[in-house]
Amino acid sequence: MASPIGSFLLFGASGDLAGRLLLPALGDLLDKEPERRNVVLIGAGSEDWDDATWKDRIKSSFAAGKVSEETVQAVLGSTRYARADVTNAEDLRRLIEGCPPAPAIYFALPPAVTVQSCTKLRDVPLPAGTTLVLEKPFGTNQTGAAALNDLLAQLVPEEQIQRVDHFLGRSTVLNLLGLRFGNRIFEPVWNSQHIERVDIVFDEQLTLENRARYYDRAGALVDMIQSHLLQVLAIIAMEPPAAANAVDLRDAKAQALRACRPWQNDPVSAGRRARYTAGTIGGRQVPDYVAEPGVDPSRNTETLAELTLEVDTWRWAGVPFLLRSGKSIQDFRKEVVVTFKPTPHLPTGLGGVAAPDRLRISMGPDRLALDVNVNGPDDPLVLDRTSLTADFGAGRLPAYGEVLSGVLQGDPLLAVRGDTAEECWRIVDPVLQAWGENRVPMESYPAGSTGPAGWI
Q1: Is residue 142 part of a domain?
Q2: Which residues, in sequence order, are CB contacts of 422 under 8 Å at separation 6+?
Q3: What are phi and psi of 414, to 5 degrees?
């Protein structure tokens, strides 16, 4: 049984992630789960803030999330801020000794600083039940991820490590469980006998948006595919878990990822990459990526990546899984598309084209569409195309709120387990190596287009 979380210690409390996402999500969570308002919020950062400055940040962040005044006052009544160097053992000791047990330590920090901080935590006694919460990326390759896991294992047990993938907190992703396993019409045909291909796409119109410091070192493959989209693939491809709990669900995801590899074991032909050039999106002029502030052209960073994978199991033998993510793309497209195989036979006299059935699971707006063939409205012997649609519920909490709820409950259901973090790097490392050796060309596309000419 997990120890009750008594305090939420936020490293990087003065940073953008904390103010823009974490604090509003925490306020929303405490509004909807008022029994957790007794958790003490402690901010830690390098800025020399006084108590009033820290409380002003909380109030402004909570206001952005439309948090109730009752929750605001409950948090302000116990919260405090401490100036600290989180890579210094003595500062860490002072922070943790001042936390009501058991603390959840959230590292809202650059990955390298998180590693330094965890290294110093080896010299600091941690209270029983301490939870460590880390943002992606988890390492920079499979070897680095394994080293990070070894370091964390010296601090707390695996079940007290929450590697955050806020994508798993999206209500749509969680609804995949109910869609797959709560409907008899889907699970019997959820295999290579009936499914032609699976596409998992996250295209956005956003450009670099002042994120060059991180994004130019990561690129589309690492930023989205290596982390978020592989986690979605695992839920689509996994075998039915015995229960929807952290142990069984994460076991099933791990099994699917262990069977995953580049299509035909060829990291060169399995992936392709491109980078946007100057163009227009929604009437806004977008500069060439390499001209964006903070970009180093020598890094040869891609802004659009496609990777075709196979899941080498009985269920999925021969089915390609295409994962794609791009920036500055014409159409906002965030969806999973399951394309079924064509019908084997149409009765003589039935006209029209029987296009493959497609199940589309959109992740913004959250909705479901099943594209099927039906008799046409004019001639009942000519097939026509229609979509059966349904909207998913918006969810009780936003994505980060769902993640923080799991943290405060001590439930790692939505967290990435250590072995799967390593598996995700194992899958993409050969592709990254091929790209680093320029064995795959860097193509280009104008900002605001659908991608390079010739890409489908």
Answers
A1: no
A2: 139, 142, 145, 146, 149
A3: -95, 5
Q: Kindly state the tokens that stand for 8.
A: 């939420």
pLDDT of residue 202: 96
Shared domain for 130 and 177, answered yes or no, is no
Averaging pLDDT over each range in 134-138, 272-276, 386-390, which range is the top one? 272-276
**174-189 confidence digits (pLDDT tens):** 788 888 999 999 999 9
* 18 CB-side CA count, 13 A: 23
In terms of domains, do 427 and 292 share one?
A: yes
- Joined tokens for residue 18: 């904390």
d(CA 424, CA 258): 9
Cis peptide before 365 (omega within 30 of 0): yes
CA separation, residue 305 to residues 221, 235, 326 (Å):
6, 21, 6
Cis before 137 (ω within 30): yes
User: For residue 170, what pLDDT is reported?
Assistant: 67
| Mean pLDDT confidence for 95-123 | 96
Q: Between vectors from CA 108 to CA 220 and to CA 427, what angle results, nearest 5°?
A: 35
* Residue 298 domain-assigned (yes or no): yes
**pLDDT, tens digit (0-9, with 9 covering 90-100), for 69-86:** 999 999 999 999 999 999
The pTM of the whole model exceeds 0.85: yes
List of E strands, 242-301 = 260-262, 271-277, 279-281, 284-286
Q: Clarify whether residues 96 and 245 are in a common domain.
A: no
Those residues whose C-beta lies under 8 Å from the C-beta of residue 54, and which sit 6 or more positions away, are 13, 43, 79, 80, 81
Pick from 378, 381, 320, 390: which is nearest to 352 by CA?
A: 381
Is the pLDDT score of 361 beyond 70?
Answer: yes
* Full residue range of the structural domain in which residue 303 is found: 168-395+417-446
User: Which residue is associated with the tokens 């116990």?
Assistant: 78
Residues forming the active site: 228
Confidence of residue 66 (pLDDT cuts 50, 70, 90): confident
Which residue among 135, 154, 183 closes a domain? Answer: 135
DSSP assigned state of 426: H
